[in-house]
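Reading a protein record of the kind used here takes only a little practice. Each token is a code from a learned vocabulary of local backbone shapes. With that in mind, consider the following protein and its fold in token form:
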Amino acid sequence: MGSSCSNRAVSEGSVCVAARGTIISTFSGGGGLDLGMECAGFDTLACLDTELSARKTLKANRPDWFVPDDGDVSTAAQRLTPASVGLKPGDLDVLAGGPPCQPFSMAAQWTRTARLGMDDDRAQPVNGMLDLAASFLPRAIVIENVAGYLSGDNSALKVIEARLKAINASTQSKYRLHWDVIDAAAYGVPQHRKRAIAVAFRDGRDMPMPAATHADRPMTAWDALHDHKETAPPASRGSWTPLLASIPEGENYQWLTAKGGGPELFGWRTRYWSFLLKLAKNRPSWTLPASPGPNTGPFHWDNRPLSVRERLRLQSFPDSWALAGTERERYVLAGNATPPLLAEVIGRAVAEQLGIEGLPARPKLLRPRAEATPAARKPKALPPRFVPLVGPRDAHPGAGQGPSPRVEEEPAA
């Protein structure tokens, strides 16, 4: 190696070329995290997921990635070892993943098991990811999840920090978790999607979060969708979706309450926020749910559900990326995915700390803006069959924070 090359570079003749990093991903889903990290200079050595549709998606888009048929992260450390991918402990650059988020999501606060957090069985697979960390001793660990994953009494924070402390004690590593909640829209993703990003470097260094690049002028839903022509738009199936044409762009059912601008059909805050929620062309999308109900938005401004491709665009996937599985499975994969552009931005920050060089000045997955945004359409009158339902409605009396945990009682002896 020539004397002018950095520790992360290889020499090709007289030119120093940056070496790419390596990554193993867990809970890989539709591949958003891996795709973004690939654009940030990392090569995927293995990706783990239990869902067949996810594994088919990963294999179809990147045939050279190793996607084990048994993708259970909880037991992966028994099969996936440094030697099995041609490494020694400490060689891997990044171990990354987005552990199951259902017990920590906003939607979960309205379910029977609200706020159980790490007491929910679905939250336990993160321990398998940390088993892999103990085995591989990667230079960096990256975790992406919903905003509530690392905050609150039942969050995963204490569990993760305790495991990292134990790994440090047994291996003389210095993992320290640095985390923050950021909005994907602040980095060019055309969707407001608040995510907890946590990074722990093996040498204990700090992880400054990337500076926001689009906070003052975010990419919009129109920027993402303006040049996409849907040949077979999905049809609305909800009993309330005929009302969408009577709701302005960027509004939800609350337009049809006493505090909105339309006829009063519903009580204020008596429904969930995404009920009859519509995209606005001049704003980012709201967070896309993984399993939307028939009346759950965000809906297209054309008063219909978003297609899978439209959802992928709002997540910042390129059109070359295709999802496998049934329509429902593809909706879930799209909604659960890490926005690839967000993963690329975080990956670039990690790459800088690890000494990976030669990245382009601008993220590869950042789309260009549309030249102009058309004006929003005016809402239409209520469909005749809803007119008899107009009248005063009671507003919700509570704080709107969801119920306390409601766990089924043990059956009587």
